[in-house]
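FAQ: What does a ligand-bound record look like?

Like this one, built around iron/sulfur cluster:
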Amino acid sequence: MTKKTPAGKPAAGRKTAGDKPESRTALVRRARRINRELAEIYPYAHPELDFENPFQLVVATVLSAQTTDLRVNQTTPALFAKYPTPEDLAAADPEEVEEILRPTGFFRAKTRSVIGLSKALVEQFDGEVPGRLEDLVKLPGVGRKTAFVVLGNAFGRPGITVDTHFQRLVRRWRWTEETEPDKIEAAVGALFPKSEWTMLSHHVIFHGRRMCHARKPACGVCPIAPLCPAYGEGETDPEKARKLLKYEKGGFPGQRLNPPQSYLDAGGRPAPPLGAG
Ligand code: SF4
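The answer part, i.e. the structure of the complex:
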């Protein structure tokens, strides 16, 4: 039986007995509608790492592996106060950097990465973060995901960030059957104009972090339920679903200590500094 959404409509994209598979045109239309809806739910969507320049963003993105953006944001103020430039970090004593990075986990490997990355910036790029994908991915600890975050958010070049949330949500929405990040990136990229890629990534990741959680999505309060083939995978009771919401949607602080003004204007609150709660 076709699942019903809160609006009483059959959930989109779900194939049931008698249903026709979704055409390519219908898929493109539905995917773009989901993105438009998400833009209304999260008009303030933004990268959730605090940064003031491309160097800070590339370092913060490397540090964000296996931890939350919140934990990175609570750690980087001390790091950048002590080592504001690639030259400073390239010449740093690894033990002192390890001490600062300890709260982010895997701090020895991350220390090696950020010092190695700073050395490469100094030696190969005059201490500047390069604005080209092929250069960025040559830096130690920088893969395609990190490179696209940097290109999209520090250089204004469109990029799709295929992180764990992005992978889970596009699968739930049946945007692609692919499972490898590079193939997901290509398949989803083909559904949208290039100019929308960066904001699309923010919208999807915001939704994954706030509402469409891995274990229990808050389907009962999800505004895109009528467009979602996975409606019902999570909590459908609106009252219970509301309690699952996170960050500003649940009335809690966000991940950034210095969020953009648009986030504060929408009622979002800054994250507390390290040790403050
Ligand atoms: S919360 Fe539920 S309805 Fe909303 S996108 Fe996720 S799975 Fe679909």
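Follow-up question: can I read anything off the structure? Yes, for example: The longest helix spans residues 107-125.
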